[in-house]
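User: structure tokens for phosphoserine transaminase, please.
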Amino acid sequence: MERAVNFNAGPAAIPLEVLKEAQGELLDWKATGMSVMEVSHRSKEYEALHNEAQERFRRLAGMGSEWKVLFLTGGASSQFFMLPMNYLAEGRKASYLVTGSWSKAALKEARRFGACAEISSENPGGGFTRILKTSELDIPSDSTYVHLTSNNTIFGTQWKTWPDTRGVPLVCDMSSDIFSRPFPAGDFSLIYAGAQKNLGPSGLTLVALREDFLARAKTKDQLPTMLSYRVHEEHNSLYNTPPCFSIYMLDLTLRWLEKNGGLKVMGRLNEEKATLVYKAIDSSSGFYRNPVERESRSSMNIVFRLPSPEAEEGFVKEAKAAGIIGVKGHRSVGGIRFSIYNASSLDNVKTAVSFMEDFKKRRG
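Assistant: Done. Predicted tokens:
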């Protein structure tokens, strides 16, 4: 079977080595005579896996024991309301750095629970083509936290440097670029991410938060049980049945990351892949056009336009015929999008770039 060049934005490609390992253990995991999907989440075998995945995550991120790693469900979108539910109360407010659709959605949910300051890079006519500049970051000092989205899947922008919040706790939605590059864990108080782009299959949401920030969350009696960070931390994310198979796949993916050099190596590889695609765009004499300001270009989700909607439709159709799938832009903006997450190999990106060059020769 020939594997597709998979540029889906999420659920996204999973490393082939990881898939093969899961395939080999599907019917008999850890000599239990059962799949990991059939083992009790209260068993010693599963508990060991659960704790191992948390420790691998901390190790790769450069986090110490003061970081608590939670395995939740509901996707990153559930954190849009869970975060303010836990931290916003009467007299409290938060600041949101809005640089794309998902940070905009997070702000909308947060406003249901308290006052929020909005600092946005949205264009006057709508849409986003850049990350906020340092001079624009007028963050109220009395904010309970500052929220940002590190990478924007729809508009293809990414924070290349992290903002100085002047002591206000920094919270980050890292769903679409988590573990694609090193990041200074000590600069953050809480990060969260859906797993389905760089960490495994859908169904799992990771939340990592520092003990000192957890201590500021509302108490358990102030919130519904399943929406309290304190409850999930106290029960080691085992208050109810967790998404065991997705956590198992996460552990395999983290093991693959460690084996392949960790975040520094992955960061260099992802920059190399992105450079190849952007070079093909920039050297196309305008046939391909990337709308993002250069210093804000994403290394994960590369968006571009062709001369006409008909050309874009033809590109998607011919790419699929060539085994390159998932390249159609988000339905809200159109165009073309390459989502070149960790599991997208350098060879796959080279194949896609060769297709771009051939398509231009024939259609340009």
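User: Anything notable?

Assistant: DSSP finds ten helices and 13 strands in the chain.
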